[in-house]
Amino acid sequence: MSSNDSQKVIDYFAELERLGSEVLAGKNELVLLDKRKQKTREALRAIGASGANKSWMCIGKTFIKLPSTTVRTMLESDVNDINVAIEDTRQAVKNRVDALKHYEGLPDLTDTGFRLNALTSEDASILRP
């Protein structure tokens, strides 16, 4: 094997390693976002169960006592933002997996049925009798 051929093989595997690392990084980001979402949901549940008019909230490095309705609104907004970030990250991971599969010469996610979208509530209502 010539040095040019061995360099091509090394470059090929280096690119595979880079693409694989991007996929793993995206999956790790999904795990972290999900943990953050669960903690926020726990906080929402605790505020609902406490029944207090005011709740303590940590903003940055400061604890502030705010009306519970304000805290609930802020936490619900955070959950919505996290959901958007999770969907964006899922889409990015799918794109990275597609790039990896394309580089390996394998069929992409569309061909294998992994690019399916969930039914919307409107679509589901049409299917119900």
Automatic annotation (TrEMBL):
Recorded source organism is: Plectus sambesii
Task: Name its cellular compartments.
Answer: Cytoplasm
Q: What is its main location?
A: cytoplasm
Query: Is tRNA processing given among the entry's keywords?
Result: no
Q: What is this protein called?
A: P53 and DNA damage-regulated protein 1
What cellular component GO annotations does this protein have?
Answer: cytoplasm
Keyword line = Chaperone, Cytoplasm
Task: List, alphabetically, the InterPro entries matched.
Answer: PDRG1 (IPR030482)
